[in-house]
């Protein structure tokens, strides 16, 4: 676009443009996509997530060339890749490190969305696609975790698949269907391989494309939570507080990519196991169905949710049931509810209390673990704050976010440790803090004194 005049391309590019929107796509998503000019450090992680996705796909292709999805040969094929295939060790370590770094950048990317309200109107669908990507990543990581066919792979898959048997009525048959056998076996390895290599990557790539298209349709959020499309425009109708994504943010992101690749390379070459957190030591031992490791724990990025699973014991369901009954009585007697709600909500709480005691605690552990992720889909409708960004929220709101982050990290650590009474009590408290943060958000998010939001983005050249 030069002023108001449309410049037509010529030559080979012009021939392509008349048959496929190369230039139009470039302009719509890069050179003429106007993003807020006040992006900061937190905006590196979206592009870094895309970079790691590319790394995982490329290294995965080379690994599949030599990997054997056969229970008798899987572990040996991984050893063959590591010892015999030229540069196979590098490709394998890039893939294993990439899996963990994927979750690092995605967790930070989601945290940025939480800080700056990137899930609020009009970006609800962008956030929903993002959470769906997160769910797919968890599935992709879980299915890929079995493939090395080491001790922790085998027994970790055994524990997680057995959780489905806790679902009332259909649980036992469902767990057999997932495994393809009565125990984790060659059939399990084959179906996990097909999901890891074909099914989920196809869904993942589609969701990433939808995420980006939805984002570019409504525009990017910014640290101030100000909509630049609603602000002043220049004479060409472009946002005055926006700058073209290319070249400004492509250069900005290249700097982030350079820093990331330095860290990534340092891990790959000097600490690919990362002390047993990225690659567990038990996974360098071939799977043995007759020898259970002393302590079975998932990879670090699953451990916060694994802590919630372990925290939901029979005693804990008694506590939750009692709390539900007390809440029902309080709402009925002094809750301020009127009409049908005065009876309906306490009745639902009583039913929940009864179900907590009737159904096995393991099932509620699965519900807590799954609900901790599913609740993220509803975040756009749980947050009732009058402002988007954390910058303009009360100070005690920031303390809530801080407690939430620290609690999540502690839960992650507890999930890596052998169970004990003290750790179990801490996990139960952490589970209540995590779920309470979201379930009580409609109440606490609207409370306090909020700072005035500027009419335009605040920007300081650097």
UniProtKB/TrEMBL annotation:
GO cellular component annotations of the record: respiratory chain complex III
Gene3D superfamilies associated with the record: Cytochrome Bc1 Complex, Chain C
Keyword NAD annotated: no
Highest rank taxon of the organism: Bacteria
Residues engaged in binding heme b b562: 95, 196
Binding site for a ubiquinone: 216
PROSITE patterns associated with the record: CYTB_CTER (PS51003), CYTB_NTER (PS51002)
Domain Cytochrome b/b6 C-terminal region profile: start-end pairs: 235-455
Binding site for heme b b566: 109, 211
Cross-referenced InterPro entries: Cyt_b/b6_C, Cyt_b/b6_C_sf, Cyt_b/b6_N, Cytb/b6-like_sf, Cytochrome_b, Cytochrome_b_N_euk/bac, Di-haem_cyt_TM
Cofactor: heme b; heme
Topology relative to the membrane: Multi-pass membrane protein
GO molecular function: metal ion binding; oxidoreductase activity; quinol-cytochrome-c reductase activity
Chain ranges passing through the membrane: 41-65, 99-119, 125-147, 159-180, 192-215, 254-272, 316-333, 340-359, 365-383, 395-416, 422-441
UniProt entry keywords in alphabetical sequence: Electron transport, Heme, Iron, Membrane, Metal-binding, Respiratory chain, Transmembrane, Transmembrane helix, Transport
Annotated compartments: Membrane
Cofactor descriptive note: Binds 2 heme groups non-covalently.
Cytochrome b/b6 N-terminal region profile domain ranges (all copies): 12-224
GO biological process terms on file: respiratory electron transport chain
Main location: membrane
Recorded family membership: Belongs to the cytochrome b family.
Biological role stated in the UniProt entry: Component of the ubiquinol-cytochrome c reductase complex (complex III or cytochrome b-c1 complex), which is a respiratory chain that generates an electrochemical potential coupled to ATP synthesis.
Subunit structure: The main subunits of complex b-c1 are: cytochrome b, cytochrome c1 and the Rieske protein.
This protein's name: Cytochrome b
Originating organism: Bordetella ansorpii
Lineage: Bacteria, Pseudomonadati, Pseudomonadota, Betaproteobacteria, Burkholderiales
